[in-house]
Design a protein that fits this description.
The structure holds two protein chains of two kinds.
Chain A: E1 2-5, H1 12-19, E2 31-32, E3 35-36, H2 42-47, E4 50-53, H3 65-76, H4 82-86, H5 92-101, H6 117-130, E5 135-139, H7 147-162, E6 167-172, H8 175-181, E7 185-189, E8 192-197, H9 199-202, H10 206-213
Parallel strand pairs in A: 1-6, 1-7, 4-5, 5-6
Antiparallel strand pairs in A: 2-3, 7-8
Helix pairs in contact in A: 3-6, 5-6, 6-7, 7-8
Chain B: H1 3-25, H2 28-53, H3 62-76, H4 87-112, H5 117-137, H6 163-186, H7 188-198, H8 200-204, H9 210-236, H10 246-259, H11 264-284, H12 289-303
Helix pairs in contact in B: 1-6, 2-6, 2-9, 2-10, 2-11, 3-4, 3-9, 4-9, 6-7, 10-11, 11-12
């Protein structure tokens, strides 16, 4: 797991957009498992094992919780084509385990547009697990959450790393949340990496303090 | 199963049972009319599938209906001698040709230009206008006047089917089309299409080639519309350029919107209800019926955004998805 920290507008989400194929880079390469994936379309990059969580929860508000899980679950099973989807039957045990993971076991039939914001955030993380990707990109996974919900999401992400063995990249600017993730951090300012290390190191780095609090005169 | 889902299932079964029993209570004239309405119902199902399920708002659905109607007419009138003049060949061509045209148009719109929303609506609208003008000028398919004397559906011995037999043939075709649409809509493919309707970008980032899915469902829908067109021409005995045009494309949108686009049975019954209302209105309101119909449409869309039958006919979700929600 690696966390990318930085103030608003420093290029964190742009980095994710380049990695996931939303934007083609002006130069350089994006290497995934030794292969340059720069410029590939998002669905092709996703099929190589990349799943992304968006800043605004990327869930389907008109669909039920179970339907939200079914879409990535089918993709995780390699059922990408229309005809292969027609004959697909998702594994109910795996689906229930995913619902348990995001704490929505009793809400499979609820419309996602009607569940709480924190539940949507957790549901989207469960959807990424259902997608069975090797690399998970989380863009501000605790945006708009209370302190307690933030801790619950931090714990969920650590479980993904420790129990599911996923590689995870997290974008965040909430230092308290980053500390709870217990992972290496890089700090970006204006599109460049200015510091690297554990939380204790980067939080004392003068360049990081300056980027967050401004220069002392 | 929730109470509303039980009601939806009961009303759906009841509607089909009612259609099955209609010949017991209606005379030949009204059964003939009902056969036409059921044919329009198949047409409405084709739009309900793409609009209700995948969110593709097509203003040119009549293109496929009209091509199906012309295909049937050309074969059964012997204008394509190398294909023979069998009605089965006519029906097969009425499915295949619109399907291919829909695949091509879908490929241009979704793969080539990635059109959606209002842009897609405008392009399909223009395509319908172009097709109608082309049909008017193409002498081989009858030009402005179209093609006449298309034979009605007939039995294997060549005798025309009775009114009731035609009704049952079309009714069974409608039921099979409905079941096909329902199967697609309730399968995991239906869930992915609903996902595309809800958030295309999200679905793309799960690894789905969204354009391919749109082309696929658009193609299936084109085949269904063409099938309806093929059946239509055997009942009316003629085809003419307005069948591929903008006006009919708009009408089918009204049927589906009034019936309820989110529920396939709603779209189907919407066609029957609007056509029956049109018939009654044109008899009692003379030339003002179009104004009344327009007002009814606005009223339904504003007051009942889910259509007249959208809530009533919603079914329980497939068993694999568990309790709650409706399809």
């Amino acid at each position: 797991m690696q966390c990318i920290l930085g103030p608003n507008g420093c290029g964190k989400t742009t980095l994710f957009n380049v990695v996931t194929g939303e934007f083609a880079p002006d130069g350089g390469e994006v290497r995934l498992g030794g292969r340059n994936v720069a410029g590939l379309s998002p669905y092709r990059i996703s099929r190589l094992g990349v799943a992304r969580k968006f800043q605004v929860p990327g869930v389907y508000p008109e669909l039920s919780v179970a339907e939200n899980i079914e879409i990535p679950l089918a993709a995780g099973a390699g059922r990408y084509g229309p005809l292969s989807l027609l004959g697909y039957r998702p594994d109910p045990v795996r689906r229930d385990r995913l619902l348990d993971l995001c704490g929505l076991a009793g809400k499979a039939g609820d419309k996602v547009g009607e569940i709480a914001h924190g539940e949507k955030q957790r549901l989207e993380i469960a959807m990424l697990v259902a997608r069975d990707a090797e690399l998970i990109l989380l863009d501000e996974p605790t945006a708009g959450m209370s302190g307690a919900e933030t801790s619950a999401v931090a714990s969920l992400i650590r479980r993904l790393r420790d129990e599911e063995g996923k590689s995870i990249l997290v974008i965040e600017h909430d230092m308290n949340f980053v500390r709870q993730l217990e992972c290496p951090i890089v700090v970006m300012v204006r599109g460049k990496i200015v510091a690297e290390g554990r939380y204790e190191e980067v939080s004392r780095d003068p360049r990081v303090i300056e980027s967050y609090l401004g220069k002392r005169h | 199963m929730t109470r509303s889902a039980r009601l939806g299932l009961s009303l759906t079964v009841l509607a089909w049972a009612g259609l099955g029993l209609a010949p017991l209570v209606l005379d030949d004239w009204n059964i003939g009319l009902l056969t036409q309405y059921v044919t329009y119902g198949i047409f409405a199902l084709s739009l309900g599938l793409i609009w209700g399920q995948a969110g593709i708002l097509c203003f040119g659905q009549a293109i496929f209906f009209g091509i199906g109607a012309y295909s049937m007419a050309l074969v059964t009138l012997g204008k394509l001698p190398w294909l023979g003049d069998s009605q089965w060949t006519g029906l097969a061509l009425a499915v295949l040709l619109p399907m291919m045209v829909a695949a091509l148009l879908g490929w241009i719109m979704f793969q080539g230009r990635a059109l959606s929303g209002a842009h897609l609506a405008i392009v399909t609208l223009c395509a319908a206008v172009v097709c109608e003008i082309a049909a008017r000028r193409w002498e081989f398919i009858g030009g402005f006047n179209g093609l006449f004397n298309v034979p009605p559906l007939s039995a294997p011995n060549g005798d025309p089917l009775s009114t009731n037999a035609t009704y049952f043939f079309v009714g069974i075709a409608a039921l099979l089309t409905y079941l096909l649409s329902l199967w697609i809509g309730r399968s995991p493919l239906g869930t992915v299409l609903a996902g595309i309707r809800n958030d295309e970008r999200r679905t793309l980032h799960f690894g789905y080639d969204v354009r391919l899915h749109k082309i696929f469902v658009f193609t299936v829908s084109g085949a269904m519309a063409g099938f309806a067109g093929g059946l239509f021409t055997t009942q009316f005995g003629f085809v003419s350029p307005p069948l591929v045009g903008f006006a009919l494309s708009t009408e089918v949108l009204i049927w589906v919107a009034v019936g309820g686009r989110s529920v396939l049975m709603g779209a189907f019954l919407g066609a029957l209800a609007v056509r029956a209302t049109e018939n009654a209105m044109s008899a009692s309101l003379d030339q003002y019926w179009l104004i009344a119909l327009g007002a009814l449409f606005i009223l339904v869309v504003v007051v009942l955004p889910q259509g007249l039958f959208g809530k009533l006919l919603a079914l329980a979700p497939p068993r694999r998805l568990g309790r709650g929600g409706t399809r």
